[in-house]
Amino acid sequence: MKVVFMGTPDFAVPCLQKLIDEKYYIAAVVTQPDRPKGRGKKMVAPPVKELAEKYNIPVFQPEKVRSPEFIEVLRSIAPDLIVVIAFGQILPKEILDIPTYGCINVHGSLLPKYRGAAPIQWAIINGEKITGVTTMFMDEGMDTGDMILKKEIFIEPEYTAGDLHNIMAPVGAELLKETLNELIRGNIKREKQDENEATYAPMLKKENGLIDWSQPSYKIVNLIRGLSPWPSAYTFYKDQMIKIWKAEVYDKIYEFNAIGEIVEVIKNKGLIVKTGDSSLLITEIQAPNGKRMTVEEYLRGHDIEQNIILGSHF
User: Fold this and answer.
1) Distance CA 59, CA 114 (A)
2) Phi, psi of 46 (to 5 degrees)
3) What is the pLDDT of residues 54-67, one digit of tens each?
4) Are 110 and 150 in contact (CB under 8 A)?
5) What is the β-pairing status of strands 81-85 and 2-7?
6) What's 207's DSSP letter?
7) CA nearest 105: which of 24, 163, 172?
8) pTM of the predicted model as reported, rounded to 2 decimal places
9) Fewer CB atoms inside 10 Å of the end CB: C or N, the chain?
10) Within 10 Å of residue 97's Cβ, how many Cβ atoms?
């Protein structure tokens, strides 16, 4: 079976590695163009490209996959199957119609829930207890195609989006292997998605990370977990942005303090901040131009004043 693989970030790498290990003929890898990264703006290749080049697989990096020129390139390759994982561009019908067996996608949620670009992060932000991976045949909609196989994954209370990503990526690779085995045997059973159950997980922006201290403590904790490691949750201490990496619900109620106020600074424990329903213990932070560290470590060289109200940029 001649396969074209489309994918870009780390999440897609185990799936490509699985196809390589299973001896599929990968005629080409399609990924996003190299992008400038970091303070030096050095051009960095997508992780999928690095793996493909390691195995001398031809790589294509079109700015727009739907351009007529690139569609002709795909037609000339004539794949039997296109496998798509976190590619970053929507495929037009002209591409979906090229492969004999269609286009199969590995998506990081239990569809039809959390269609879209950031299903792992939103599942944690919304406090879900269970998520998973789904394989499906792609159609012209965003993650709306017929489902093939699913695998559930429990979300432990301490998981960040980064933790869950690292757990789900190899699960997705195994599910892809099972899906292709069923496809080859002719045992694929399509399952329509129930539109009444559909929810969306839109792309995250840095602005999503600004903490609203009027929210209940558990929601703020979920936000911090769901946005770690990117884009990260943050607040403002005086006029400085502080990233918040770890926090936990602190049930003590401070009746006479303001929401967002630092009500206690406990050197060997953390910062207690009043929230919409109780309070929050912040245990790990990152100051501007500084490293990520525990509050205990930070307080050895810096002061944080009690009774300051955290919030938007003043």
Assistant:
1) 30
2) -60, 145
3) 999 999 999 999 99
4) yes
5) parallel
6) G
7) 172
8) 0.93
9) C
10) 10
